[in-house]
Design goal:
Blueprint: E1 4-8, E2 17-22, H1 36-42, E3 45-51, H2 69-81, E4 87-92, H3 94-103, E5 110-116, H4 127-134, H5 136-145, H6 149-152, H7 155-161, H8 169-178, H9 184-193, E6 205-210, H10 218-227, E7 233-235, H11 248-260
Parallel strand pairs: 2-3, 2-4, 4-5, 5-6, 6-7
Antiparallel strand pairs: 1-3
Helix pairs in contact: 2-3, 4-5
């Protein structure tokens, strides 16, 4: 696949490794550009933010709504194979779910990975009754149209689902202008149909969740952490898109410390 890869190289001396950033549903490589990408490059990493197939500037091939997580895993594999080691991964939401599937076939080149507000290994069936209750009509439209646009196209809904109430209006409008539809098949796979085999993953993981995450509640993140026999880092008052919100630097510092342990 011809994938969009936005790279920022460490400017001074040898880097600490290659860091690959994988976006979540409805987004692209652009979601890392303001905060995580320049910060980790300044910290000594060669940083590569990728857009999965049919997202942002990557090749559009076939119908997005039927793309599978397996195809997204192939995209990640393609990028990791092209890089020298060591490789570190950070995946947000659907990106974290993609990482889990990728690491189920152990890749020794990947030294550590971060699941950031990630779709959980046990699935996320709980999101369905929550969406039905809180935004009944948009969610029903989403299912009828096999499209996520009805859920996030209104600013109020997008803020409720992904952003904090304090996220600046101008930044929200900029993000919404770049957001796109997502694979409905991938949503079903993350919910219940194609869960990763967490027992096969040997790569050290840091699991980060948001206390106020609507899509991936703290309870789901903690349950996933139990599966991986680790203690999650829960960010106080953080919504789903924690890497774009105030307080992102504290999260980045936590991740950088994990990478260097």
């Amino acid at each position: 696949m011809n994938l969009e890869i936005i790279s920022t190289k460490y400017a001074t001396g040898y880097s600490k490794g290659q860091l690959v950033l994988i976006h979540g549903a409805c987004m692209g490589a652009w979601c890392w550009s303001d905060n995580f990408q320049p910060w980790f490059a300044a910290e000594g990493y060669d940083v590569h933010a990728i857009s999965l197939r049919n997202h942002a500037g990557s090749e559009k091939k076939g119908n997005l709504r039927f793309k599978s997580v397996t195809e997204y895993v192939e995209d990640l594999q393609q990028v990791v194979k092209s890089l020298p080691g060591p490789v570190f991964l950070i995946g947000h939401s659907m990106g974290g779910f993609t990482i889990q599937h990728y690491l189920a076939d152990h890749d020794p080149k990947v030294h550590k990975a971060v699941l950031l507000c990630s779709s959980p290994a046990q699935g996320n069936l709980g999101i369905i009754p929550r969406l039905l209750k809180d935004m009944t009509l948009p969610f029903l439209k989403a299912n009828l149209q096999l499209s996520w646009k009805p859920v996030f196209k209104e600013k109020a809904n997008a803020r409720k689902v992904m952003f904090s109430k304090d996220f600046p209006e101008e930044k929200l409008e900029k993000a919404l202008a770049q957001m796109q539809d997502e694979s409905f098949r991938a949503f079903l796979e993350m919910t219940v149909l194609n869960l990763p085999d967490h027992r096969k993953i040997k790569t050290p993981l840091l699991i980060v969740g948001g206390e106020k995450d609507y899509l991936i509640p703290e309870k789901a993140t903690r349950k996933m952490a139990v599966l991986y026999n680790t203690e999650p880092h829960i960010v106080t008052n953080a919504p789903h898109n924690v890497m774009m919100e105030a307080g992102w630097e504290d999260v980045a510092k936590k991740i950088a410390a994990f990478f260097q342990e």
